[in-house]
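Final paragraph of the annual report: two paired records, presented back to back.
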Amino acid sequence: MDNSTFPFYFNLTMFMNIGHYRYPVFVVGLLLYSFIVSANLILTLVICRERTLHEPMYIFIACLSVSSLYGSTGFFPRFLIDLLSDTHMISRPACFTQIYVIYTYTSYELTILGIMAHDRYVAVCHPLHYHRKMNSKTMITLAILAWILPVPVINTYIYLSSRLPLCGNEIHKVFCANWNIVKLSCVSTVVNNIVGMFFTIALFSLSLFYVLYTYLRIVVVCWKSSADFKGRVLNKCLPHVVSFVIYCIIGFSDIVLSRYNLEAMNPFVAIILSLEFVIIPPVVNPLVYGLKLPEIRRHILKLLQWFK
């Protein structure tokens, strides 16, 4: 392997833009990571501990929290270490591992939100058949599919990128990203672009259209129902809608940002925008589900009182 075209280390150059602010940023990052771990861990433990919450909707919420723990742990420890370091080199294996973790995490968020939409659709549109259609076997199958389906797609991305000969080793981000490595290629990246675009559009489009379809059916059912029924549906579906809308906005902005020249932007704005995916969903999701759903909120308060 030629070290000039297959560098063993990559340099994360955007850390240089933080400069003397790295200590305040480190404190903020540590507090954010601590909150993410604590909030998502509490939510997961409450759902696993309470038998009354062993229903598809709550199990899928627990899956979403586990995904947040997985994604934030794949980013924050390395990010915090780099903030205090004078050098910001990351080895090739560590870089591609970070890409795998962050990309699978973002994909898991989407697939889990998709199966949560399916659960709400069945609960609202087929209430009499809900327990038959969303039994334990179906719930486990959907959860496994949500965790497995993104893996071959991400593996394909990484495999194609890892074979590219590179004419540099500078990544203009604070973490490794597949597109930034592809841009360093010395050869044509048409195959990478086509495969990446196809899988990204396919994954996002299928999930987006299915979620929109399920909520269109839910709206039709609610339109013909009583105000009390509409209120109960809103309480159950609103947290999921909020999570999905936030994900779509962040996903769109991240795709646009990855094609934009970050060096032309204010460095702090560029860093904050590039970290949306690993900060906002893991922070917002436990707040939305933990505070909005009364069943979860009641058990969380009981657990916190027990610790006192």
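The closing record of the year follows.
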Amino acid sequence: MTFPFPAIYHMVIMTAEFLIGATVNGFLIIVNCYNLFKIRRFLILQTLLMCTGLSRLGLQIMLMTQSFFSVFFPYSYEENIYSSQIMFIWMFFSSIGLWFATCLSVFYCLKISGFTQPWFLWLKFRISKLIFWLLLGSLLASLSTATVCIEVGFPLIEDGYVPRNTILNISNVKIMRKNALLLVNLTLLLPLTVFVMCTSMLFISLYKHMYRMQSESHKLSNARTEAHINALKTVTTFFCFFVSYFAAFMANMTFRIPYRSHQFFVVKEIMAAYPAGHSVIIIMSNSKFKDLFRRMICLEKEEGEGD
């Protein structure tokens, strides 16, 4: 079996993204799980980051598995990709990753933003209960979305092709697929809408706060200015990763991208960049995580040199 250059190039990129994603998400899971076990009480941020790390690690494994089979075992990929079990796992991790990222944006928005509207303050004072119910709602919404997908099956019907293990009337399947796809898209638009609102509010609040400080004092310390600029950069990068993943995911869900084409590989690479890249941003924007991660890497280097 010969492998075209785009497929090999795709596997190199996916492997790099998988190794980075597994490292940073594993780091988030272990560190936050240890903190929760050590304190033995519910901590909002640690719980959020642990759940986010778990969902992204699962998504990263799923994407890597799909890419591996699509390149090295294409016929097996075509036969099994639309099975109920694979579709359920795929949609569950894809959906819950979006929802947990939205929960994280809600937390940062309520915690950092300086809005003084009554409704905002009411939510801010109840942030612990709000995040708990949001996490539970995210889990239920993701399970529901995945269930819808396996009920319909989302078979690939393009140019008259139907998977060999599918025995259905083509016209009926097309109608079912379009209706269910519309339902899934509308369901996943909700976390996107909430995420965009929270991220926009956080960006506006940080920008206003930085502008106010510069107006009040021309001798503003470089450290404080740099801190707010870094926060704005983090929010902007977070937003770009989330929206690019959502767009790639929706393009993938149309099932119109030719199999093993250049577009097919690019969509998978964009989707894999999100769970790895955003977790890197979370670690780099948190001084404690950043220092601990650096110490861990330095320790591994020292052990390697000692051997």
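The CA atoms of residues 210 and 228 lie 6 Å apart. This concludes the annual technical report; the extension proposal builds directly on these records.
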